[in-house]
Amino acid sequence: MLDQQPYLNFRTRDGSGSFGLQRIHVRRGTEAIAAQSAATTLRSRLGGVSGCAYLEQQYVLPAVEEPVPVAEQWSEIRFCGVLIFSCEGEDQYFILAIPAINPALLETITPNSNPQLNVDDPTLAALIAELTNGQWCNPFGHVIVKLEAAYFQVRNVSIFPNWL
Amino acid sequence: MAFQTKPAAELTFTLQDATGSKSFLSFPIPSATLASVALAAAGVMRGLLANVTGCAILAQSLTYSQVDDTPETAEAGSRVERKGALVYRTSAGKVARFEIPGIIPAAILADGALDRTNAGLAALIVAMTEADAIYSDSNGFDLSSLAEAYEVFRTTKQSQLPSRRLS
Fold first, then answer.
1. Which of A9, A22, A133, B150 is the most buried (most CB within 10 A)?
2. CA–CA distance, B44 with B51 (Å, rounded to integer)
3. Which residues does chain A have within 8 Å of residue B84's beta carbon, measured at their own beta carbons?
4. What is the pLDDT of residues A1-54, one digit of tens each?
5. Per-residue CA distances from A76 to A158, B43, B71, B81 (Å)
6. pTM of the model
7. Is residue B53 within 8 Å of B17, Cβ to Cβ?
8. Which residues in chain A have Cβ-Cβ distances shorter than 8 Å to B135?
């Protein structure tokens, strides 16, 4: 993965309710805390020269794969493997839908049921172990604890553009 | 006005299948995680994902977000299309542009140049080039000095048209 130049994004809103976006690049290797501190300082300066309200700031570290990889011939994003995890805290969950799930991971447990994922497969078990090692969380910051369900699902795809 | 850090940073992968269709896959990670640690974890996750999906993993981004939970009201009459353009020279001898949306009229001179004696503008210009500033151009070269500063208007997009169009 080739690291690209990280940047700060500022989201603004003007007096008519329109939204705008500002971007400025920062040095590679800048830690998130330092970037956010610099963004706060810059925002205070910008507030002195802009009539817009500043709503959100982001520190983004992008990267692209080089050379560009090729997908498997059988892959289609609408055929998903869905993993449901429980997290710390009451009624906290994380749902992961992996597009173009490898068909070798599917198994049918009972007749007429939707295919389940074989969680004992070494490749899937390794992914599950990584997600439950205490490093990952749900969008609300609750650490992922345990896998609760793993199954196959066909999802809708928007016609234009082809994003899922 | 108080900017709050979101509880989780977001690691997002861009995937593409054999038909050319793209998909995003996001993994939240606690926002206190150092960027260097999160990027290392992203490398591990990428390898594990590649074993279970037939998609090609084209790109990734790691995003730390802060949101104002009590946003200010924008100044009446401000428009994001009216911008102050700051053009900086870089250490590579090229230029990099930074645009300020909704530039205040007090910072603009009669001929369209920005007023560098305006205290707010002067403080901003210094903040972007001072010794411990972290800013760079898109190729990673530091900003060295201001080359140009002027007012510019950008095209109004459909979504930026005023919500009230008849008084």
1. A22
2. 11
3. 49-50
4. 888 999 999 999 998 888 988 999 999 989 999 999 999 989 989 988 999 999
5. 13, 24, 42, 40
6. 0.88
7. no
8. 24-27, 38
